[in-house]
Amino acid sequence: MRTSPEDLNCAAPPSGKRLTARREAFITAAREVFHEKGYADATLDDVITRSGGSRQTLYALFGGKQGLFEAIVSDNCETIFRGLTPKQLASRAPDVVLREVGVRYLRIVVSPECLSLNRLVIAEAPRIPEFAQRFWTLGPGRSRAFLVDFFDRQVERGVLRLSDTKAAADHFLDMVSGTARLQCLIGLRQPPTQVEIEAIVEVAVNQFLHGCLPKQAGQLVEPLAAPEDVKLTVTDRRTI
Questions:
Q1: Which residues of 113-152 are buried (b: 16+ CB within 10 A; e: fewer)?
Q2: What pLDDT is stored for residue 48 in this prediction?
Q3: In order of start, what are the domains of the chain with their CATH numbers?
């Protein structure tokens, strides 16, 4: 008995492991198509042809091209924080947490897939501003929010002294990724090895937690206080 195209279109979408595999195939194909054609010029037909899936399943999983892009960005962020929550980490030493988060973060942002995604967003943002906003919200913004939450909890416990946890999150992520990521992004170097990543993060963690001032009588010099007009209480930070 032959199956008509209409029958295929009406067939139930895959489920369970097959659905997971199909989702991964769509995302892999979308990464490749976006890289080759850019977001604006990529079509769902391109993704479907390359993945071998059906339009029905693609729409059921992602809703369209924007959903595919958002899934790619979200998956990158999930990889960084999989198995970690600020609440779970609250009782662990800050240096241990920052090393783990820093290594995960740097490993992702210098990966070829993430670098390609960043180049895509930079190229498309002038034409599609909302494209850049979704990228920020689902990717870098989530990483920042995760650290802000962690730092807020450490301040509440009296473990860290930070006048602005949002600025602290920005500073730490920039210290971890800054030079290596930018050099990779513009093609000046290959992504760092695991050993290099761990070394970069170790320096960033020590610099972030201990600063540049020398020790006096076995103690670190008190950090310079922020001006009164920019100091925030923990309550203020949580409501901004």
A1: ebbbbbebbeebbeeeeebeebbeebbbebbbebbbbbbb
A2: 93
A3: 13-63 (1.10.10.60), 74-239 (1.10.357.10)
